[in-house]
Amino acid sequence: MKIVLLTVGKTTAKNIVSGIEMYTERIRHYVPFELVSIPDLKSTAALSADQQKVREGQGIIAALNPGDRVVLLDERGEMLTSRKFAQRIQQRMSAGVKRLVFVVGGPYGFSEEVYARADARLSLSAMTFPHDLVRLLFIEQLYRAMTILKGEKYHHD
């Protein structure tokens, strides 16, 4: 199974990019992993939040393959412990999912079309984080899930 983190826009903060690169390399020891970014919208001053969500949503949908399992990182999603998250990853692997895609939306969230395409929603916290930090937090949690599944000593209960 390949795991993809699909994001709107790129991470520019050097310290966060460094952390993302470190965990990305670690994840790739366990499973094929790819970070895909669709471009930020340009000239958004004249667009409403809903219009921005629709345009970003078109880019997100275009980046998905028909058989992808899609999980939105969404504030209204299900909150899981690290162990439960690892179990969900294992379930997807056992089910023969070819590509599991986690999606971080733009500043206003997701369009209705993206919600309709999603198979699940996952929340990393009840708190709100900058999108760059969400990417780093998610990638670290994915690495943690891989170490849990392999019985390695990274995670402590």
Description of the structure:
By secondary structure, the chain is α/β, with parallel strands linked by helices. It has 5 helices and 5 strands. The radius of gyration is 15 Å and the shape is globular. Helix 1 runs parallel beside helix 5 and helix 3 (82-94) packs across helix 5 (131-149). It has helices at residues 14-27, 49-62, 82-94, 112-117, 131-149; strands at residues 2-8, 33-38, 69-79, 99-104, 120-123. 42% of the residues lie in helices and 22% in strands.
State the share of residues found in helices, binned by percent: 40-55%
Strands in their spatial order, largest beta sheet:
2-1-4-3-5
Termini Cα gap: 27 Å
Main sheet record: 5 strands, parallel
Computed over alpha carbons, the radius of gyration is: 15 Å
Overall SS class: alpha/beta
Q: What is the count of β-strands?
A: 5
Task: Label the overall shape.
Answer: globular
Order of helices and strands: EHEHEHEHEH
Low-confidence stretches: none
What is the averaged pLDDT score?
94
List the total number of helices.
5
Residue fraction in strands: 15-25%
